[in-house]
Amino acid sequence: MTKKYNVAILGATGAVGTELLALLEERKFPLGKLKLLASERSAGKSIKFAGQDLIIEAVTESSFDDVDIVLASAGGSISQKWLPIATKAGAVAIDNSSAFRMHPDVPLIVPEVNPEAITQHKGIIANPNCTTILMAVAIYPLHQVQPIQRIVAATYQSVSGAGAMAMEEVKLQAQAILNNEPAVAKILPYPLAFNLFPHNSPMTDNSYCEEEMKMVNETRKIFGDQNIRITATCVRVPVLRAHSEALNLEFTQPFSPDKAREILATAAGVKLVEDFSKNYFPMPIEASGKDEVLVGRIRQDISHPNGLELWLCGDQIRKGAALNAVQIAELLITKALI
Hints:
Elements: E1 5-10, H1 15-26, E2 31-38, E3 46-49, E4 52-58, E5 69-72, H2 76-88, E6 92-95, E7 124-126, H3 130-145, E8 148-157, H4 164-178, E9 197-198, H5 210-223, E10 229-236, E11 243-251, H6 257-264, E12 270-272, H7 284-287, E13 293-300, E14 307-314, H8 318-334
Parallel strand pairs: 1-2, 1-5, 2-4, 5-6, 6-7, 8-10, 12-13
Antiparallel strand pairs: 3-4, 8-11, 9-10, 11-14, 13-14
Helix pairs in contact: 1-8, 3-5, 3-8
């Protein structure tokens, strides 16, 4: 008889929480009890799961007493408050916020890249930032063949990264603009419909925003290589779902585009999408709802003999957040670590 696991979703009403529910059902996760936790204002409401109506509970000190795995996606301050309580109660917490990612005792995991790091967990496992996950899945197979020395990344990030309310705001802004009315921004700092702006995360002392520094620091931790030189420019674009990234990779020696295609065509979590004759490459609209990171437009960097260019699109809510977390939970079970 297959062992079943009691799971709690902390932040069940958000965009990622909703996706977590869908994935648990879709992937036939061996569920015992499923507990939906959220704030007081959501308590008492119901969410349909596998044909049943589950009641949302307000999170309390005793919420984790009978829980094996916590899937947390409610923001950093919520994770910092409740996850130590969850682990003290005996649960393993997989956290989608940035609260614990760079903590030296917390493994930061992309299952296609560093699954072995899961054995080091002490109750909390961190899910990386969405842009980091998508990039890591796409380039680590190349890094394994020949070390990457430098990454120059430009991201084109959908509004889904800012949550469900921001997605609705952009829809309303688009309607307003088409009706010759002013576009109002309340969730995001500026109107995003028919517009774009550099990522709205807080600025750091080095003039890079936090989102850009997450790509730098998290990639180094996941790859186990502090010497990779990484720079990023992150931009919010008027796409509802799925992020895109333009990556320039510098290797220790030339890396042919054909060799890269051959590797990525069979890489876990990657789908090669390119037809140069039709100028057809990955698009957010086609990446939305997909598990794989779509990669294409692989070409030689004409400015550097050891340079390679590629383009990717991936579903930020799915592989960039919820799917990666569920895969980590499945890894815990597979490796009998819970």
